[in-house]
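Long-time lurker. I teach an intro course on protein structure, and each term I like to show students one example going from raw sequence to a predicted 3D structure in token notation. This year I'd like something fresh instead of my usual example. Would anyone be willing to generate the tokens for the chain below so I can use it in lecture? Attribution to the forum is fine with me.
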Amino acid sequence: MKRLVLVTALSLVSFGVAAQNTAHKQPAAKSSSAEHVKTYTPDALQWSAAPKALPSGAQLAVLEGDPMKPGPYTMRLKMPDGYKIPPHHHARREHVTVLSGSLKVGMGDKFDDAKMSTFAPGSFAYLEPTVHHYAAADGETIIQLHGTGFWEIVYVNPQDDPRKQK
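-- Reply from a regular --
Happy to contribute to a lecture. Here you go:
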């Protein structure tokens, strides 16, 4: 009986020491500071015209990084109802989350409304590099895009590229 009590006591002490050591190894929770945490509320986002690589009418808010430079980025794209992005692809994986509205997406080289799938808020997808796709907004739609820059868009049909239109 003494052995059982001794083994139990030693186990509890060992467990307590291990828990204490673990607690010391974990950093204490840090308060939000500009160096470590950046937060955004929807009303505080700074929207500006989307880059000329996209059809006019959309707005962009960059949350993290610089999509036009190497490294991680997070940005939001606000599209008016009926906004369309012609068939295109990207050189790097693109992650998309629908935040509001409905995003319609189709796969392939030709824009075809009948072949599009509709994604509601909360939907997430990622597209591998060079996958040809096209998109449209059903109602005002906001999507969040994140990945590793350079973010770029290559149109299947060069005539669809807004940068080449006068």
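Some talking points for your students: The helical segments are 2-25. Strands lie at 48-49, 59-64, 71-79, 84-89, 94-107, 117-119, 124-127, 133-149, 154-155.
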